[in-house]
Amino acid sequence: MDLAGLAVLVEAAQAGSLAGAARRLGISPLMATRRLAALEDAMGARLMQRTTRSLALTPEGEAMLPFAQAMLENEAAARASVRPSSAGASGLLRVTASAAFGRKLIVPVVSEFMTDNPQVSVDLLLTDALVDIVGQGIDLAIRIATLRDSTLVAMRLAANPRALYATPGYLAAHGVPAAVADLAEHHCLCLSGVTHWRFIADGRERRVRVQGRFTANSIEGVRDVCLAGLGIAILSGWDVREEVEAGALVPLHLSDGALDELAVWAIHPSSRFVPPKVRLFTAALARALR
């Protein structure tokens, strides 16, 4: 069976169009159309319903898709098994991460990784929105979170220490909170939709309602307003290290509660085969986070 046609089927199902599949595979849309047509001829069935505006799998295509994915994974595994370990990574690596973490920590690692592996190319998606990594064909997602049960495969890369921060000017004007309850008297800067902050005290979780005059859908917005002296924010240490060293922000320590701990995770869709490009990039990022 023609693996090139199978690759078009898989990529088109993920991208939602033959043009998107062609871009991912580095071929022309005409070539993608021809390869899919040849696959359909070989199978004796239409696998995709195509119109001028949309593309969708037929029932036969739905049945074929998991087998196509497995065959392509097995082919990649076979190539990797005979590829010298010194050969490095190759192919297109698709990575997603939150905007702030990506710009500050992922981009420098990507730059070094591409220099060390000249046969690899990278598509980096920086977004604070939830991403369907399977549906969008993402090889690796970097997340800072408490992970829920999932069919995805996750590896812990590093701790992600967080703290409450405020500017010296804000604290001089509004006072320094000493206990969790004191936060009720302060302007708390939150992500949109967040109404409570979670603290751990004596091994128990404590949720505290907070309020303020500003919210944002991005942690970068919260960070910038905090730096402007408009309130207290929960921020990650990597995000404000330079500002703390310069005295622009002050970490706050409460006597009766600490923020719950989060970690940096590398998440990929399957444990059956981890391509060298994913394995090597994950290792490079883990080293950078130490």
From TrEMBL:
<keyword id="KW-0805">Transcription regulation</keyword>
<comment type="similarity">
    <text>Belongs to the LysR transcriptional regulatory family.</text>
</comment>
<dbReference type="InterPro" id="IPR005119">
    <property type="entry name" value="LysR_subst-bd"/>
</dbReference>
<dbReference type="InterPro" id="IPR036388">
    <property type="entry name" value="WH-like_DNA-bd_sf"/>
</dbReference>
<dbReference type="InterPro" id="IPR036390">
    <property type="entry name" value="WH_DNA-bd_sf"/>
</dbReference>
<protein>
    <submittedName>
        <fullName>LysR family transcriptional regulator</fullName>
    </submittedName>
</protein>
<dbReference type="Pfam" id="PF03466">
    <property type="entry name" value="LysR_substrate"/>
</dbReference>
<keyword id="KW-0238">DNA-binding</keyword>
<dbReference type="GO" id="GO:0003700">
    <property type="term" value="F:DNA-binding transcription factor activity"/>
</dbReference>
<feature type="domain" description="HTH lysR-type">
    <location>
        <begin position="1"/>
        <end position="58"/>
    </location>
</feature>
<dbReference type="InterPro" id="IPR000847">
    <property type="entry name" value="LysR_HTH_N"/>
</dbReference>
<dbReference type="InterPro" id="IPR058163">
    <property type="entry name" value="LysR-type_TF_proteobact-type"/>
</dbReference>
<dbReference type="Pfam" id="PF00126">
    <property type="entry name" value="HTH_1"/>
</dbReference>
<dbReference type="GO" id="GO:0003677">
    <property type="term" value="F:DNA binding"/>
</dbReference>
<keyword id="KW-0804">Transcription</keyword>
